[in-house]
Design a protein that fits this description.
heterodimer, A: 346 residues, alpha/beta, Rossmann fold, 2 domains, seven-stranded parallel sheet, B: 259 residues, nine-stranded mixed sheet, two-stranded antiparallel sheet, binds flavin-adenine dinucleotide, binds adenosine monophosphate
């Protein structure tokens, strides 16, 4: 007992947030340095199926609960479950993925465990048996080195900071059922349902992102349908432009992002916004179309591996970040670019 | 309906921030209300307009750090308290959450405590759920729509924006709510509001005033550093036609081996 590393797998109806497996990968490399075992936690609907996947990813001990109070996500009973296992296991380190649920559970578990929390960490080192975490702060303008004075240490790991372990479906095991100790009448929230389920690739996990900005609405040669007012025409134009952005993204198997200007002008929903007040992303490839590259936009995407900018204005700040730039009209470039990738990538 | 909004003062989002001697420095960039918190203030004011009651601002920060509070008052909030104490110089998020929980209790009779999604300086995004846990209140995070707020029954129904889409949740009050950016556009302060805020009396509470057990901080950040400079070779792709440019660009991107 003691010295355990807990890994929380974030899932929704059996769909695991991919960053969860990266967290398991990080735990495996930490366990080599710190000693001790790894305990994987699964809560939510269909924990058995998720537990099975965890074994394929190399987990040896999986704890789950089939308490009906844990069927749909609510932070309070989920925290009770995490805290209970952490206490029973004498956990030294509790790792979560940086997801909406992961961050919240990390925060609340830290309160119950009297522990420090270090969210959205991008690197972990061990120095003299102590964990040192690196966290981007000021939207990535700086990096903070942080640690907890005393354990347990509660950490969430950013997507794409660590590699997921290899999958080997011959590895199996039997999950251990835990009584989560949740009393439904103590929970004061009720999930009534979901209004819009989203498909497609989530921005945080995406390996490729194609983003559009205000420039996407700028194609005077398009003739809008009659009877639209000025605002409707602008949005209509933007939708034509975002179609081109979306087609490129789909050929590359990527997700669609946007600048705040595009979101504020109602071209695309807020969920797509990249930047300081949107999503922080670090894909392998980020293609910015008709985006000037304001500092708040850069904050969300500057750690992308390869950045490509397509913009009419040669002085747009986005070009400073770009490995490749095209000074030109996105309406001219995007269709043949999509076609070129279609041919090359099959 | 009594609402508290917790706001933090931070350097402007456009500031150039660099590490100097292991510390963050933003030169003479202005200090402003955390942008996410503006949405929380707007949400509070909309609910107050619908249901009456007070909107009270609480901010924990250095003495004199009142610019953010003044802009919240100028938007139309009823009153504000600054919690300031030298003991809090090395506070971590859990400490701040304990302080906020104690301050919310001191305000008393609060139905709803609103927070921003995260502070754009420390980028923690944990203070609201921590405060909720300490108070023993439910937390509804990343709320995009308040569908119903019923002070008589003490219930609230919201839509939360999470990875899978919009989750509709109903909860009892009092509750902690963090808001998403799409909930409502923050209003601009009125001229009258600005004048009133400039004259406002902002009481300062010390830890002793809060009469609460505040734990010692556990998280240390001995140093902040500048991120490693990335050497980017910029290459502008040109050609005789869009087709030619597109072909060259596609080949170059594939050559980077990121696909
Ligand atoms: C507190 C705060 C938070 C913010 N958070 C964010 C954030 O999270 N994300 C974010 O993105 N912004 C954010 N901003 C806004 C940011 O400052 C910029 O206003 C915004 O990023 C600009 O978006 P844009 O580049 O699409 O528009 P613009 O700056 O208007 O740029 C449009 C670009 O398109 C180019 N263009 C026009 N037509 C074409 C064409 N046909 N083909 C090719 N190029 C064309 C133009 O040359 C121009 O460079 C924030 C601002 C503040 C104050
Ligand atoms: N010092 C503070 N004073 C008041 N509210 C705060 C403070 N720090 C954080 N908050 C609130 O908690 C939210 C999340 O902050 P954080 O967890 O630090 O990212 C902010 O948007 C504020 O609403």
């Amino acid at each position: 007992m003691g010295n355990q590393i807990l890994v929380y797998i974030d899932q929704y109806k059996g769909q695991v947030m991919p960053v969860s497996w990266e967290v398991l990968g990080a735990a495996q490399s930490l366990a080599e340095k710190l000693g001790g075992g790894i305990v994987v936690l699964v809560a939510g609907e269909a924990p058995q199926a998720v537990a099975e996947q965890a074994f394929h990813y190399g987990a040896t001990e999986v704890y789950c609960s089939d308490s009906p109070s844990l069927a749909d996500y609510r932070p309070e009973p989920f925290t009770d479950f995490v805290v209970k296992v952490a206490q029973e296991q004498g956990a030294e380190v509790v790792l979560f993925p940086t997801t909406t649920r992961g961050r919240e559970l990390a925060a609340m578990s830290a309160v119950d465990l009297g522990a420090g929390v270090m969210p959205d960490v991008t690197a972990l080192e061990v120095e003299d048996g102590r964990l040192i975490a690196t966290r981007p702060v000021y939207a990535g303008k700086l990096l903070a080195k942080t640690y907890c004075e005393t354990g347990p240490q509660i950490i969430t790991l950013r997507a794409r900071a660590y590699k997921a372990p290899e999958v080997d479906s011959s590895r199996t095991g039997t999950p251990i059922q835990v009584d989560a100790g949740v009393v439904e009448s103590d929970v004061s929230t009720r999930v009534l349902g979901y209004t819009q389920a989203k498909g497609g690739v989530s921005l945080a996990d995406a390996g490729v992102i194609v983003s559009g900005g205000r420039g996407v609405s700028n194609n005077p040669s398009l003739t809008p349908p009659e009877g639209m007012d000025e605002k409707e025409v602008e949005v209509w134009r933007a939708q034509q432009g975002f179609k081109l952005v979306g087609e490129l993204a789909s050929v590359l198997g990527g997700a669609v992002g946007a600048s705040r200007a595009a979101v504020d002008a109602d071209y695309v929903p807020y969920e797509n916004q990249v930047g300081q007040t949107g999503k922080l992303v670090s894909p392998d490839l980020y293609i910015a179309c008709g985006i000037s590259g304001a500092i708040q936009h850069q904050a969300g995407m500057r750690s992308s591996k390869v950045i490509v900018a397509i913009n009419k204005d040669p002085d747009a700040p986005i070009f400073k970040l770009a490995r490749f730039g095209v000074v030109g009209d996105l309406y001219d470039i995007l269709p043949p670019l999509t076609e070129a990738f279609r041919q090359r990538l099959g | 309906m009594n609402i508290v909004v917790c706001i933090k003062q931070v350097p402007d989002s456009a500031a150039t921030v660099v590490a100097e001697g292991g510390q963050a420095s933003w030169g003479d960039a202005p200090l402003v209300m955390n942008p996410w918190d503006e949405y929380a203030v707007e949400t509070a004011l909309l609910q107050q307009e619908a249901h009456g009651g007070d909107v009270t601002i609480i901010s924990v920060g250095a003495e004199g750090a009142t610019e953010a509070i003044k802009s919240a008052l100028a938007m139309g909030c009823s009153q504000a308290y600054l919690v300031s104490d030298p003991e809090l110089a090395a506070a971590d998020s859990r400490v701040i959450a304990h302080v906020l929980a104690a301050a919310i209790k001191k305000v008393g009779d609060v139905d709803l405590a609103l927070f921003g999604k995260q502070a754009i300086d420390s980028d923690m995004g944990v203070t609201a759920p921590q405060t909720a846990r300490i108070l023993g209140w439910p937390v509804l995070s990343l709320v995009s729509v308040v569908q119903e707020l019923n002070p008589e029954d003490g219930t609230i129904k919201v839509e939360r924006s999470i990875e899978e889409g919009r989750q509709v949740v109903e909860s009892q009050l009092p509750a902690v709510v963090t808001v998403s950016k799409d909930i409502a556009d923050p209003r601009y302060p009125s001229f009258m509001g600005i004048r009133k805020a400039a004259r406002a009396d902002i009481p300062v509470w010390t830890l002793a005033d809060l009469e609460a057990d505040i734990p010692a901080p556990l998280v240390r950040w001995p140093e902040v550093v500048n991120p490693p400079v990335r050497e980017i070779t910029n290459e502008i792709i040109s050609g005789d036609s869009p087709d030619e440019i597109a072909e060259t660009l596609a080949d170059k991107i594939i050559g980077e081996k990121v696909l």
